[in-house]
Amino acid sequence: MTAAASPRPQTPRAMVQVDKLWSVFGEGDNAFAVHQDLDLTVYQGDMLSIVGGSGTGKTVLLRQILGLLQPGRGTVTTLGRPAAELCTEGAAARVGMLFQHGALYSAFNVLENIGFALRELGTLPAAMVDEAAMVKLRMVGLKPEHATRMPADLSGGMVKRVALARALIMDPPLLLLDEPTAGLDPTSSDEFCALLRELRAELGLTVVMVTHDLDTLFALSSRVAVLAEKRVLVTGTPQEVAQFPHPFITTFFQGERGRRAMAPAPQGGH
Ligand SMILES: Nc1ncnc2c1ncn2[C@@H]1O[C@H](COP(=O)(O)OP(=O)(O)OP(=O)(O)O)[C@@H](O)[C@H]1O
């Protein structure tokens, strides 16, 4: 019997590949580029945080990955296909998106909000859509009695959970989060981070997240990409990126909040 060849180390699969991207708004003399020759690769299993100053194009980059915007130049490949193709074929099945102001549909109850994309697809009877939505409702830590509540009667943390359940309704392998903890108090924010961590591990998700919040960044990120000067300036672990010499990074990571977020957790706590 011959010995089995030792397995070759595998390069992780690229879930998102952005090459030399230009994102341009306006026409003629009023045209301006938000991204110029921006490169970014998101690997399977990544929990990648995108940070950068206000207006550096973080949300625009998420919209490019989702295929909602057209590259001026360059290419965006999401799950092996041009991102633009996602929009034409039930994007929710492949990429879940939690928008920053991810308002729920106010006229629909919680369960109807969660099942929305599946219902729109029209391939399953209503009872099965509700059943699938109920599974997701439990998955995000809500209780069956929350199913019939209206969005106006939910706390901020519950709204985020419903929006997350809605983003996961079709079991997408890739999840995009725009400021997932914005507007939450510190306890709700910590709880939401813990939920995201659990779901990522349980479902094997790849996650790309925009955040300004250092606690969220350190709680969740395996890698960080910094947007500055219209491109991705540096990527690496949070600790690696924090050492990169650049004014934005110094202010962002070395301020008081940054130092606190990077400090080792106190021992002997619970
Ligand atoms: N549809 C659009 N038309 C014109 N300009 C746009 C459009 N969308 C975004 N922009 C511009 O692109 C730039 C980047 O916007 P974006 O929302 O991506 O910034 P951001 O990095 O997410 O900022 P913030 O941290 O403040 O949310 C801004 O100058 C914005 O005004």
From TrEMBL:
Q: Which SUPFAM superfamilies match?
A: P-loop containing nucleoside triphosphate hydrolases (SSF52540)
Q: What is this protein called?
A: Iron ABC transporter ATP-binding protein
**Keyword flag Ligase:** no
Keyword Membrane in the entry? The reply is yes
| SMART domains per UniProt | AAA (SM00382)
Tell me the organism: Comamonas aquatica DA1877
For this protein, the record's Gene3D superfamilies field holds: P-loop containing nucleotide triphosphate hydrolases
Alphabetized InterPro entries for the sequence:
AAA+_ATPase, ABC_transporter-like_ATP-bd, P-loop_NTPase
Residues of the ABC transporter domain: 16-254
Arranged from A to Z, the UniProt key words for this protein are: ATP-binding, Cell membrane, Membrane, Nucleotide-binding, Transport
